[in-house]
Specification:
six-stranded parallel beta sheet, Rossmann fold, 13 helices, 10 strands, binds D-glutamic acid, globular, alpha/beta
Length: 272
């Protein structure tokens, strides 16, 4: 038995953890941010896969039976290989889940025009994961993507709401809406982006919905635990959260407060 593992390249996964704790407060969570090696968004498949696998193994070694990749880039580039290639050899009774499929499953129901925009890292966009997954669940949907390579570095460095930060965001939004003016639903396909949701909502045309994933993924985890009681009983329930970071713990504790309403006292670890 153990806590539910939550992994991200850095701080973004905290926006998902927030929603897990609101919906499923009884469980224990172990959060791991690979801050020392973030951002993942511009890294190659092989590197994202290698780093994500190391993180998953670490969370398993620390007792997690279930790990959520609360990172779209890792979900896009590493999840399938880990599930199919690695998990059977590591421990066939453990599970790793991602954030793209649960989002793709429901997103069609948010749109009236059937035209959906995806904002994500370059890695997620190039993987085409959203296009493929939304295609399974809403085959009629027209999906248009925009890579936003500057956003994660801006957010991690607290520059996202500076004038130049806003200019980058504005430019990417304009470019997405120029590619398809019929878009009425924009998915924030990176777990860092809820931090700029309010700003995006202030600059997009009226009637356009901007959707972040936290609540959707939390609902999907709740459903998963209900449908898999054998796994649910292995998740410990004391309502605790433990934070691990591969960078300085002081820095993590300070910056985490931007993403989560919690006093954070993290532990530094090294992944290999
Ligand atoms: N938060 C991660 C995501 O959802 C990516 C950030 C990064 O580039 O490391 O894609």
């Amino acid at each position: 038995m153990g806590p539910i593992g939550v992994f991200d390249s850095g701080y973004g996964g905290l926006t998902i953890l927030n929603e897990f704790r609101k919906k499923l407060p009884e469980y224990d969570y172990l959060y791991l941010g690979d801050n020392a090696r973030a951002p993942y968004g511009t890294r190659s498949y092989d590197v994202v896969y290698e780093y994500t696998l190391q993180a998953v193994k670490e969370l398993f070694d620390r007792g997690c039976e279930l790990v959520i990749l609360a990172c779209n880039t890792a979900s896009a580039k590493a999840l399938r290989s880990i599930q199919q290639r690695d998990l059977p050899g590591i421990d066939p009774n453990k599970r790793v889940l991602g954030v793209i499929r649960p989002s793709a499953e429901v997103i069609g129901s948010f749109s009236h025009t059937g035209h959906i925009g995806i904002l994500a890292t370059k890695g997620t966009v190039n993987s085409e994961s959203y296009v493929i997954e939304i295609g399974h669940f809403s085959p009629e949907a027209v999906v248009t993507q925009q890579a936003c390579p500057m956003w994660v570095p801006l957010i991690e460095n607290h520059e996202h709401l500076s004038d130049s930060g806003k200019a980058f965001i504005q430019k990417d939004i304009t470019s997405l809406l120029e590619k398809d003016p019929e878009i009425d639903t924009i998915v924030l396909g990176c777990t860092h982006y809820p931090l700029v949701q309010e700003y995006i909502e202030s600059i997009v045309p009226n009637g356009l919905s901007v959707i972040s994933q936290g609540e959707i993924v939390a609902k999907s985890l709740q459903d998963y635990l209900e449908r898999h009681p054998w796994m649910e009983t292995k998740c410990t329930k004391q309502g605790t959260v433990t934070y691990l970071t591969t960078e300085s713990k002081e820095e993590f504790d300070r910056n985490a407060s931007q993403f989560i309403q919690d006093e954070v006292h993290s532990e530094h670890i090294t992944l290999k």
